[in-house]
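Let us walk through a complete example step by step. Step one is to write down the protein sequence. Step two is to encode the small molecule, magnesium ion, as a SMILES string so that its atoms and bonds are unambiguous. Step three, shown after the inputs, is the structure prediction itself.
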Amino acid sequence: MRNTERAKRIKMILMDVDGTLTDGTILVFPDGEELKSYHVRDGMGILMAHLVGLKTGIITGKSSRALEKRAAKLKIDEVHQGILDKKRILEDICRRQQLTFEEIAYIGDDLGDLEVIKVVGLAGAVADAHPLIKQASHFISSFPGGQGAVREFIEFILTAQERWPEIEEKLTELTKIK
Ligand SMILES: [Mg+2]
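Step three: the predicted structure of the complex.
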């Protein structure tokens, strides 16, 4: 099946965090607090997905309060931190959201993402993902993690679903209110 056909069926976009929404860098302070950076264009991509009624979610092996805040600000629907078995969480999400694997898109970068990448309807890899992740994915971003890869993945789905007129209209409405 062609990737555009796969993308047309997507109702929810799930993302890994470290190395996908970030470039993988973690700055550790002497007190143990960690600092990561997120790309504003990925945030805008998530907003655009929400504008047309697509759901979003995060599944990450690590945990951070900063991520919790960023996810809340972006109104991400499902946030799962400290997860080792990502596929089990995927199954939980599908049950809760009443979706099938075919209706889920997932983007990741490393081996912890492999089991999910293998089963979702549309799997994406960042440009600097592990070779096995790239091999198993349908879509490979031209951007590395933390530098707009998620935005490109989301836009690929929006284009396949012919959502741009709707997005432009809704963005105009948003600008008017503010
Ligand atoms: Mg990762």
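Step four is interpretation. The pocket of magnesium ion is lined by residues 16, 18-20, 108-110 (CB under 6 Å).
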